[in-house]
Amino acid sequence: MSVTITAADLRAAGLDAHFETLDRAIESYRDGGSPNVAIVSEPFGGREALVEYVTDELDEIEHVTFPSSATESNLPDLNEFDALVLSDCHALFTRRIGGFDVLDQFLEAVAASDTFVVTAWNQYAWQYLAAVRDVEESFGVIVPDPDLSAVGVEALLRDRYGPELPRFIETGDAGRVKSIGFETYRLRLIGTRTVGIPVPELNLEYLTSWSPRDRDPDIETVVFRKIALLSNGNPGIACVLWERSIRDGEIAPAYVEELDRSPVLDDQEALVCWTILANDDRSRSDLQSVLDGIAVDRALQTLEQQRLVDLAGDRVSIQPEALHATVAYLRGKRLLW
Prior knowledge:
Layout: H1 7-12, H2 16-30, E1 36-41, H3 47-57, E2 62-65, E3 83-87, H4 101-112, E4 116-122, H5 123-132, E5 141-143, H6 150-161, E6 167-168, E7 180-188, E8 194-202, H7 204-207, H8 219-231, H9 235-245, E9 250-251, H10 267-277, E10 281-283, H11 284-290, H12 296-305, E11 309-312, E12 315-318, H13 323-332
Helix pairs in contact: 2-3, 6-8, 8-9, 10-12, 10-13
């Protein structure tokens, strides 16, 4: 399950500064300049909406989306264009020896060109490239990830799904929201077996949402803060959580739940997972070609069993609800910084 984030959604969430940054770059181009722009966001974060905004503002601009395993033959001749939008630039490299040749050629072309180049990147690929290739030095304008505050998440949801919202209730079939809950951590046993271990933890988003005046909880505030917390400010995931939490026209804090996503992966499975995460999605054949020597189909079976990825035909992508648990896990494995 995923949703399409629009420019209107991002504006409603208070991200006018992102559009103002793009507007300044566009104005510079119209005045004869050629700024190099990088739009960076994690999956489901609204990157496509920002790209679409640029293409709508400049009718004459060409838009190219790189295939998931780009080669030199996929690189456009920048000198043939006045302005160019390039999506999925994270496809220009692979995390292996010799895997940066196409990217390096592209970055050199961008630096030497007078073309107005707008590029779009997966945030986790960008972070890796910033560490190993100083990719940010090739771009004078960087539009960062639309990382929403709790206020921004609430504004987005009210604007997108209002004015008639579901009824906010404190209790329901799941019972009253509790001040103490349990987080399940998964421990790998012998082979592929795992066991879930419940660990108690404070429900901080509930405890911090009490009204200072009458000491009664503001149920709407609890719901929106909980969605903001579990989505980590990602607009697409916030919408997924909202839609999933409505039951028979009602929503309660107890309905807003983070599904159990506690990855337990070996090194090969973790590398396959990183490759999917850092590319938004990949095909099985692409994964096999860039991960030579790894049993990709077996790794994908494990990732699907742990509900970390969606398999749609030949395409594989991270599940929205699993994104941040996956990111935290891969950081612990030192595959992400």
